[in-house]
């Protein structure tokens, strides 16, 4: 009996030794989890994060907004319409298949069928295989953002996703609703393989042993992602040691995390601008540039960043953040209450007027609080605001109807380019072309002209001048009320080297994460 | 008797139809589920196409008719937009977490409220009784949400002895993926402690007070006085004569309250990221997953209707006067 006990004990000891040798388990708590395992079914932050963990793009963004080779080792522009990508050799998919040019073409063609991505791929003509490790990507006209878009070209395993699944459905089907093979199965070339997924509860991944990037210092072998919706619970999970990394950190808990000696707070500038739009089709006064200027001058956005955002945002006066091509340094925040009052008087609205305002209350960081502060600030120049805040599930319907005189919208340029802001937010709304889809009615033909011209300008200096001119026009026109660009905030344990793997897109490259 | 049962079943069906109809009628107020399924770039026309495909643009009566038809003929309550699975499957998958939470809480309530309630009745002036009574007032008046956060900060963040979120390690009870249980692993049991305590703070004071007052009432009755007069030992009088009679009304109330507790798990599940039905319900509201919401409300309504009907039928068997009252 004693002997048996000893054997059992020693077996257990050996087992526990092998498990702990070099294995680093990394637990992450995020506010939401990716909706599926199909990288092309939905264009959202959560899905792109997952894509960087399980799949790999041709190129990716570095922290200082440069392009870093991934599955493409180099690229060259052959002519105005063609970009040639040279692909990495010796890369394996999780299924064991080899990665070649046909996977790139296959993934590209599949992405064009996705409702969410086909808008992004509109400028492209097609993807052509030159040889096993070379592809040419052609655009319909000269297009300056081919590399920006190549950050979306995640390679899916074409063999793995070909054929039919057990229900007789094609494995490559892209389905929003209903079962499809790709929703629950994944084979990419990325650093992690999905081992267990329970929607909204847990996503478990383990390191891919044949991962091509052997130079990566990353040492995470087990990667467990838990969605933790409640802000307080998420922070508690970090402070109690339940997880190693949380994101986002609610601003009210910054001090709490900084004061704890087991964890640290990491911030990085992000590109999502928060704005209010003024609807000239609903309010006559908004047609007067002096009134719009008065409103912009009445809003103390620096104060909001300091008080409400606790410094976790960058004060804005234009659409695109620093680092983007169109960024113009001389455009500065304009809070000036006296000037605002003078402008109102000049425009003949000395006694003010009454407007309605709407904002979401669970979409952007502190969105409802920002709206409340704005309503109060406008009160000081005689504009009486009737504010309504709504959960995002209901807000977007109201937004589509432009149901209030002033409405909040946040926007992140998915091409990481200034032009994208104008295309969606400030170009004259046009249902046919889709431009100005989220614009509440501001319209200046010069902005349209410049934005469209910039879309096919490949000379970056000329392009920069155009995009900067747009920012200047919008600034002078007071086309919208700018607030700030949201930062990305992470709370991590002291031994987690988060700083090197985060970026402005909020796609932490966990494959390269080092845990001491 | 058969006529009575048939009539009850018909009534139950009518109740379910009315409930589902009401939910269908107000579902537009919850928001647009398509918005949650697509990226911001997707144009309004494409969103409309998706809504068309999902049948969300059909007239209200057609949608409702389709729902009833599928529900009746195939037992199909539709598909969840959020989980992308049949609604029934989603609900069944989330049920075990809630059931285990309620079971754990019920256990805490039984183990603590019985001795404390009895003690408070027997020794109303002792310091422990006074403490229990004032503490229970505090428990009743504190919101579950606050209690939960307080517990997390004390036990998880400060002392670091218990986990703060989730269910921990679970094992598959029947090997078919339906019932994932946390009751069989140490980690799972640890995860149960804090949620169960915070959920119990609501009902525990209530039961202590109930048991105390019932017991005190019983102690005043004639037959207890008679027992004392017979010269029985205090132990015998208290535990056998008094306690037994205290228990009957308490059990009745307990049965009712357990049902109510299922409704109260909502906030507890939210704070502890507990993947149960309350959590699922909140997610569905948040993300405008109307299909899942409707299915959930219909299932809950069905449960209540079935339980009530069975109880009524049983009453009919036991006490025929109920039947007679029902026929007139």
TrEMBL record, chain B:
Keyword Cell membrane attributed: yes
UniProt keyword Ribosomal protein present: no
Membrane topology: Multi-pass membrane protein
GO cellular component terms attached to this protein's record: plasma membrane
Pfam families assigned to the protein according to its UniProt record, in alphabetical order: BPD_transp_1, BPD_transp_1_N
UniProt-listed GO biological process terms: transmembrane transport
Family named by the database record: Belongs to the binding-protein-dependent transport system permease family.
Span of domain ABC transmembrane type-1: 95-315
Coiled-coil residue windows: none
Localization (cell): Cell membrane
Transmembrane feature ranges: 9-26, 101-122, 134-156, 192-211, 246-272, 292-318
Protein name per UniProt: Dipeptide transport system permease protein DppB
Key words of the record: Cell membrane, Membrane, Transmembrane, Transmembrane helix, Transport
Main location class: membrane
Gene3D superfamilies according to UniProt: MetI-like (1.10.3720.10)
């Amino acid at each position: 009996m004693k002997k048996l006990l000893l054997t059992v004990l020693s077996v257990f000891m050996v087992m526990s030794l092998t498990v702990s040798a070099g294995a680093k388990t990394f637990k992450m708590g995020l506010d939401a989890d990716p909706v599926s395992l199909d990288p092309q079914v939905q264009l959202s932050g959560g899905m792109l994060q997952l894509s960087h963990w399980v799949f790999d793009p041709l190129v990716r963004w570095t922290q200082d907004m440069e392009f870093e080779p991934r599955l493409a080792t180099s690229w060259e522009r052959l002519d105005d319409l063609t970009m040639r990508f040279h692909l990495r050799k010796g890369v394996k998919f999780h299924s064991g298949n080899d990665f070649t040019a046909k996977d790139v073409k296959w993934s590209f063609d599949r992405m064009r069928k996705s409702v969410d991505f086909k808008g992004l791929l509109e400028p492209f003509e097609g993807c052509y295989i030159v040889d096993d490790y070379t592809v040419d990507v052609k655009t319909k006209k000269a297009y300056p953002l081919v590399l920006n878009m190549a950050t979306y070209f995640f390679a899916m395993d074409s063999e793995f996703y070909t054929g039919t699944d057990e229900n007789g459905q094609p494995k490559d089907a892209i389905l929003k609703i209903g079962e499809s093979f790709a929703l629950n199965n994944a084979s990419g070339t990325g650093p992690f393989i999905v081992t267990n997924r329970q929607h909204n509860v847990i996503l478990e991944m383990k390191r891919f042993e044949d991962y091509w990037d052997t130079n990566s210092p990353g040492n995470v072998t087990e990667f467990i992602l838990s969605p933790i919706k409640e802000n307080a619970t998420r922070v508690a999970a970090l402070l109690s040691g339940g997880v190693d990394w949380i994101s986002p950190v609610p601003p009210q808990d910054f001090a709490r995390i900084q004061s704890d000696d087991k964890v640290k707070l990491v911030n990085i500038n992000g590109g999502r601008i928060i704005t209010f739009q003024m609807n000239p089709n609903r309010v006559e006064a908004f047609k007067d540039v002096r009134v719009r200027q008065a409103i912009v001058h009445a809003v103390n956005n620096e104060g909001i960043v300091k008080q409400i955002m606790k410094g976790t945002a960058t004060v804005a006066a234009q659409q695109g953040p620093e680092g983007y091509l169109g960024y113009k340094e001389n455009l500065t925040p304009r809070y000036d209450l006296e000037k605002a009052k003078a402008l109102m008087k000049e425009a003949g609205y000395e006694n003010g007027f009454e407007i309605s305002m709407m904002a979401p209350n669970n979409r952007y960081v502190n969105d409802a609080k920002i709206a409340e502060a704005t309503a109060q600030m406008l009160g000081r120049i005689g504009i009486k605001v009737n504010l309504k805040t709504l959960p995002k599930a209901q807000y977007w319907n109201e937004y589509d109807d432009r149901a209030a005189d002033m409405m909040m919208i946040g926007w992140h340029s998915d091409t990481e380019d200034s032009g994208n802001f104008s295309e969606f937010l400030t170009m004259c709304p046009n249902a046919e072309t889709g431009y100005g889809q989220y614009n509440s009615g501001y319209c200046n033909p010069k902005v349209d002209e410049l934005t469209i011209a910039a879309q096919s300008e490949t000379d970056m200096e000329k392009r920069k001048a155009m995009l900067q001119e747009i920012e200047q026009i919008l600034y002078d026109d007071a086309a919208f009320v700018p607030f700030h660009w949201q930062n990305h905030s992470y709370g991590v344990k002291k031994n987690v080297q988060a700083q090197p793997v985060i970026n402005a897109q909020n796609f932490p490259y966990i494959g390269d994460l080092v845990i001491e | 008797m058969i006529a009575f049962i048939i009539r009850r079943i018909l009534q139950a069906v009518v109740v379910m139809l009315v409930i589902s109809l009401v939910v269908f009628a107000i579902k537009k107020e919850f928001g647009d589920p398509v918005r949650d399924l697509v990226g911001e770039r997707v144009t309004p026309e494409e969103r409309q196409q998706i809504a068309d495909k999902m049948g969300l643009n059909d007239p209200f009566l057609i949608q409702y008719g389709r729902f009833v038809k599928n529900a009746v003929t195939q037992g199909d309550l539709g598909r969840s937009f959020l989980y992308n699975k049949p609604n029934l499957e989603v609900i069944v998958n989330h049920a075990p977490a809630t059931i285990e939470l309620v079971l754990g809480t019920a256990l805490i309530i039984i183990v603590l409220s019985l001795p404390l309630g009895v003690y408070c009745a027997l020794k109303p002036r002792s310091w422990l009784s006074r403490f229990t009574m004032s503490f229970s007032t505090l428990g009743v008046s504190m919101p579950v949400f606050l209690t939960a956060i307080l517990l997390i900060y004390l036990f998880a963040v400060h002392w670091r002895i218990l986990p703060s979120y989730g269910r921990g390690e679970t094992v598959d009870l029947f090997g078919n993926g339906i019932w994932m249980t946390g009751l069989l692993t140490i980690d799972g049991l640890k995860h149960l402690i804090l949620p169960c305590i915070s959920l119990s703070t609501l009902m525990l004071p209530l039961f202590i007070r109930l048991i105390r007052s019932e017991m005190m009432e019983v102690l005043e009755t004639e037959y207890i006085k008679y027992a004392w007069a017979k010269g029985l030992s205090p132990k015998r009088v208290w535990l056998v004569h008094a306690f037994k009679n205290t228990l009957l009304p308490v059990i009745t109330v307990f049965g009712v309250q357990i049902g109510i507790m299922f409704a109260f798990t909502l906030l507890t599940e939210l704070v502890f990221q507990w993947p149960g039905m309350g959590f699922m319900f909140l997610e569905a509201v948040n993300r405008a997953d109307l299909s899942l919401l409707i299915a959930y409300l219909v299932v809950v309504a069905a449960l209540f209707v079935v339980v009530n009907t069975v109880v009524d039928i049983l009453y009919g068997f036991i006490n025929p006067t109920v039947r007679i009252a029902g026929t007139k």
